[in-house]
Automatic annotation (TrEMBL):
PANTHER family reported in the protein's UniProt record: OS07G0415500 PROTEIN (PTHR47974), RECEPTOR-LIKE SERINE_THREONINE-PROTEIN KINASE (PTHR47974:SF19)
Locations listed in the record: Membrane
Highest taxon listed in the record's lineage: Eukaryota
Protein name as it appears in the record: Uncharacterized protein
Cellular component per GO, a single term: membrane
Organism: Ensete ventricosum (Abyssinian banana)
Topology term for the membrane: Single-pass membrane protein
Keywords: Membrane, Signal, Transmembrane, Transmembrane helix
């Protein structure tokens, strides 16, 4: 979909955090996989990644917790958008746009 193709025009970590909050993790899947992935596993690893990039160290899971989360032993809730990325979201809502460029 068009919303899945926005990533090449927007700062990817910001876009990924927003898609995670919206529950639209299939958009984060490498397009070369052509949608061939377990949606629950994809959602789980994206939520884990979101917790691993939290601003405060105490908010991040330990490696042992990450392993248990990956194995499905521990549940993983949707993480909050990290403060730095939230600032970018707020700026974007105010009209600023962050573009992704390649060299």
């Amino acid at each position: 979909t068009d919303t899945c193709e926005e990533w090449n025009r927007v700062y990817f970590p910001l876009w990924a955090a927003i898609k995670l909050q919206e529950g639209d993790t299939l958009c984060l899947l490498d397009p070369r996989l052509k949608g061939k992935a377990d949606e629950e596993e994809l959602s789980r690893v994206c939520r884990i990644a979101g917790w691993c990039i939290q601003d405060l160290e105490c908010s991040r899971p330990s490696m042992g917790e990450v392993v248990q989360q990956l194995e499905g032993v521990l549940d993983v809730s949707i993480p909050p958008i990290p403060a730095l990325l939230q600032k970018l979201v707020d700026d974007e809502l105010a009209g600023d746009t962050y573009y992704y460029t390649t060299i």
